[in-house]
Design brief:
353 residues, alpha/beta, binds N-carbamoyl-L-aspartate
Length: 353
């Protein structure tokens, strides 16, 4: 990461504090922990930044990024040439529709161009090339890279060898920070705030990386409460329950029945059961239809509750819910383009007046 010999190998990102030269450093520690420390007097403006986790941005920086995304939504023409001459590489070792295409749409909307691959089979990974080697090569071809990989930590490994900013576009069952930026923009735009909300997270909380990233990001806002709705086998991993929720004194409950949670929620975040992360088909088949959000269940909810879903949906939201004004998942996909435009501009340090 930061391309300076004065940073330890464990350093995955830095962001500036208010003063000119102080900064926070995020370090990756054993056991999937990250620590953040404040360091004085060494920050230099030209350090390259990556996005591995939503925590790589401070709350202030996130606010600015979301403001920028809202401005892009309002005045798209203003940004139409901002990335002329710049190239985005999308390196996707796992299937994707929204994330890859919204990244590509974002760069094209900014006047830049895109290149990349959409599956491991169509890249040299199929010949045994490592992500470290691949990113060294991509660094010669593009200005910024969005990478999705089935292995947790692969984009982080790539970022450590990269000469261009790397964005984690989903790493295994771990993190999906740009989906979180999308979710935060959707919630802030449609609810008017990111604090004082009761958020229900429903479905595959064990393997769902979007949920892991969203929890980590939302705990930094005041008055956040979670209701974790899942079958026993798909409960949130203990590292999130203990190290993220309990360690930060965030109020949360774990329930199995969606109906019990519905009346309290300001936001219901549905997720699909992550078939590709199961070790055996039988377990998947048993759990895949555990939750189905129907019109009848929506009647139990507040009139202004938002229904979000990172998509793709399988069966967990009945199509009859799509016409409910509280169903915001298709809008959410549109917000994903604005926020990725804002992210590309931010990481390439391109300012538009
Ligand atoms: C999510 C993902 O890839 O984790 N999809 C997405 O990026 N919008 C959710 C999922 O696949 O279930």
């Amino acid at each position: 990461m930061p391309n300076s010999p004065s940073f330890p190998d464990s350093c995955v990102n830095i962001f500036p504090l208010n003063s000119q030269s102080d900064y926070y450093m995020i370090e990756k520690m054993p056991g999937d922990r990250q620590i953040c420390s404040a360091v004085s007097g060494q920050y230099k403006e030209d350090f390259m930044r990556h996005l591995m986790s939503p925590l790589d941005f401070s709350v202030d920086e996130l606010d600015k990024l979301l403001d920028l995304a809202n401005d892009i939504e309002k005045y798209p023409q203003k940004y139409a040439h901002a990335c002329e001459g710049k190239k985005l590489a999308t390196c996707f070792y796992e299937p994707s529709t929204r994330t890859r295409l919204s990244f590509e749409a974002a760069m094209l909307n900014l006047g830049g161009s895109v290149l990349g691959f959409a599956s491991a089979d169509s890249s040299s990974a199929s010949k045994g090339e490592s992500v470290s080697d691949t990113i060294r090569i991509i660094s010669c071809y593009a200005d910024i890279c969005a990478m999705r990989h089935p292995k947790e930590g692969a984009p982080l490994v790539a970022s450590q060898k990269s000469r261009i900013p790397v964005i984690n576009a989903g790493d295994g069952g771990h993190q999906h920070p740009t989906q979180t930026l999308t979710d935060l923009l959707t919630i802030r735009s449609l609810k008017g705030r990111l604090g004082n909300l009761t958020i229900g997270l429903c479905g595959d909380l064990k393997f769902g990386r979007t949920v892991h990233s969203l929890i980590s990001a939302l705990i930094r806002y005041p008055g956040i409460r979670f209701v974790l709705i899942s079958p026993e086998e798909l409960r949130i991993p203990s590292y999130i329950r203990e190290d993220v929720l309990a360690a930060n004194n965030i109020p949360f409950t774990e329930v199995e029945r969606l109906e019990d949670a519905m009346p309290d929620l300001d936001v219901l975040y549905m997720t699909r059961v992550q078939k590709e992360r199961f070790f055996n088909e039988e377990d998947y088949v048993r759990l895949k239809n555990f939750y189905i959000l129907t019109k009848a269940k929506m009647e139990l909810a507040k009139e202004d509750m938002l229904v979000l879903h990172p998509l793709p949906r399988v069966n967990e939201i009945s199509v009859e819910v799509d016409d409910d004004p509280r169903a915001a998942y298709f809008k959410q996909a549109q917000y994903g383009v604005y926020v990725r435009m804002a992210l590309i501009l931010t990481l390439l340090d391109i300012k538009v007046d």
